[in-house]
Amino acid sequence: MNDQESKHPPKPEQTLRRTVVLVGMMGSGKTAIGRELAYRLNVPYVDSDAEIEAAANETISEIFERSGESFFRDREAEVIARLLQSEPCVLSTGGGAYLAERNRTVISEQGVAVWLDADLELLWERVRHKDTRPLLRTADPKKTLSEIFEQRAPVYALADMRAEAKPEFSIYEMTDEVLQVLATRPDVLEKKE
Q1: Binning pLDDT at 50, 70 and 90, where does residue 3 land?
Q2: In this predicted model, what pLDDT tens digit does every residue of 134-160 receive, in sequence order?
Q3: Which residue of 43, 115, 131, 185 has the fewest C-beta atoms within 10 A of its own C-beta?
Q4: 159 burial class (0-12, 13-18, 19+ CB within 10 angstroms)?
């Protein structure tokens, strides 16, 4: 049985020194990669959207519908800042979280942003059959996704680090890619002697 199949977390060969904040488009793999990365590093995994939903006792879609995007973004910023105060973990953020300068600043000061960079076709393949994306509830969701991608990609490129998502990568392989990127920063991921 290999580590991928084990029910017990592997003994990490590295120590996480700073919270890793996964940023990127909806469908880039932030949740799946975040869970696997946290598992392999033996640290907590936290999803900022799940934290917001738990605090509000509503889904993200319900918050958007009832209170609007501006209200949601304020709660999101509060949650991200709070989570960055805790012990190092792997934190997945909503697709729009990194667009706010206040979030980018606090993430870079207290953690490290890793952009999961997936191309538009890969993103579309992953989100096209899901109705849980409020921003894609339009007459032409693929066009909407393309427009969002064009607006957000230059901001995601400001992230501290970038890991390229490829269609052929499994979750395990993409997590390997993220670990390789993190290994270039000893202040983030320290190799155990």
Answers
A1: very low
A2: 566 666 778 888 898 999 999 999 999
A3: 131
A4: buried
Do the Cβ atoms of 157 and 24 come closer than 8 Å?
no
Please list, in sequence order, all residues whose beta carbon lies within 8 angstroms of the beta carbon of residue 107, skipping any fewer than 6 positions away: 21, 23, 80, 84, 98, 113
Give Cα separations from 103 to 11, 18, 123, 134 (angstroms): 32, 16, 23, 21
3-state secondary structure 32-98: HHHHHHHHHHCCCEEEHHHHHHHHHCCCHHHHHHHHCHHHHHHHHHHHHHHHCCCCCCEEECCCCHH
In this structure, what token pair is assigned to residue 92? 């997945």
pTM: predicted TM-score of the whole model, two decimal places? 0.86
Distance (Å, rounded) from C-alpha 15 to C-alpha 78? 27
